[in-house]
Amino acid sequence: MDWLLWFSAPDYELARIVLQRGVAALFFVAFLSSLNQFPALLGEHGLLPVPDFLNAFHRLNRPTLFRWGYSDRRLRWVCGVGLAVSVLLILGIPQLGPPWIPLIAFLVLWALYMSIVNVGQTFYGFGWEMLLLEAGFTVAFLGSDQSPPPTAVLIVTAWLMFRLEFGAGMIKIRGGREWRDLTALYYHHETQPMPGPLSRRFHLLPKPLHRVEVVGNHFAQLVVPFFLFAPQPLATTAAAIMIVTQLWLVLSGNFAWLNWSAIVLAFSGVSDRVVHAVLPFMPLRYSPASWAEAGAEPDGVWSGGLFGGGWGEPTGYPGDVGSWAWAVVALAAALFLAVLGYWPAKNLFSRRQLMNAAFNRWMLGNTYGAFGSVTKRRVEIVVEGTLDDVPSDEADWREYRFKGKPGEPERIPRQWAPYHLRLDWLMWFLPLRTVHEEWFYAFLFKLLEADRATLKLLRADPFGGEPPRWIRVRNALYQFSTAEQFRETGNRWMITPLRMLIRPIELRDVA
Fold this sequence. Notes:
By secondary structure, the chain is of the alpha+beta class. The protein is 46% helix and 7% strand. The protein contains 20 helices and 4 strands. The radius of gyration is 25 Å and the shape is globular. It starts with 12 loop residues before the first helix and ends in a 6-residue tail after the last strand.
């Protein structure tokens, strides 16, 4: 069975640990987010009820366990099982057994979460949903502690990371002029969907530094990803650059698990020997003799890589490298994913590049990208209610406060990522499109009813659970205060009211 050695990469054990446990942790966050928010948004009595959606599409051509009926109780069971399996994988328990065990565990997570996404409608229309699904399916074939990571699966994982980064870079180059003239970050930190506690600090950085940020972003997304497939230590260096870039984005804003997914996937290029050379306290699982027998340099870090290096049998694994059956399954899965990669590869170099698109109903082999253009002004939707009988401008209008979107001028934005606040994100999209969306009117009428499940999605209900008499919607311009303005007012946001978007409505307007 020596031929199997050519299909294994024992120098990537750290990569497998981070990939499998990291993706499992992101699944945990995704299921937790769904458990807390799905019933209010999409449940039996939600804003866009799944039963109505299923009834409208009798032949829903998407794989989902809810095809045969939806209930909030069934949704909670799905999330509960997903959370339990995710925890087991995070702890590494399935990885202690044969490679079939973590494979089954990840495929369970993939199937359960795909069932949620495929009925999630606009609340699950984000690119990182299918990114998580594709990542979960891919790392399922990395095996367990009983055998070294399969080289082919590591390559397609690196290919997924390449598509994520290079696709985002190409979208920007083809998108708004601000990415080409290096001015995008004059605005982005202020106008991004959900600012974080440090976003204002980033926004106030000198403009020359913002231009350097854009250049660094282009380098990290358009040049560095190619080196994931280079020999070591170039691949590890490329991964490190992308990880640092993503951590910069984590500090500057809230993008659910998008950045954390990229950080995890970047480890597909990280070699144990390179990490050990830089951080000697990180242990190696194999003896130098095993590398010498394989013709490698035991003390060096330049030889080897995903495409070669002559791997020897690691002493840290029990038994032989693994059965021929598992090697065949892993290689077949990698070839399957490689074939599906044709369509996103073609899209990357298309003049009409699609962003965050799936080419099959299983959400494998997708195309990714974000922020092809940057909005120049931050316009926020403001929802207000009053208990007064007459909804005049002189009435006591009180604003509903959201968890993630800006509200009070003095409030510091919170850090939520990787947790995903779906309602808050869709509120950001409304000014870019229209407030006259079905889910938003449903949301307003839920507020008029003081629906408890809906109110739990908010940070503060100004009426303490009592239903208001009237609801209205207006918009306002939000700008980060300058250092001088902050010293004078103590406000982090300078707010300018704009206009009324939806005039006062009451419950009888439901008809």
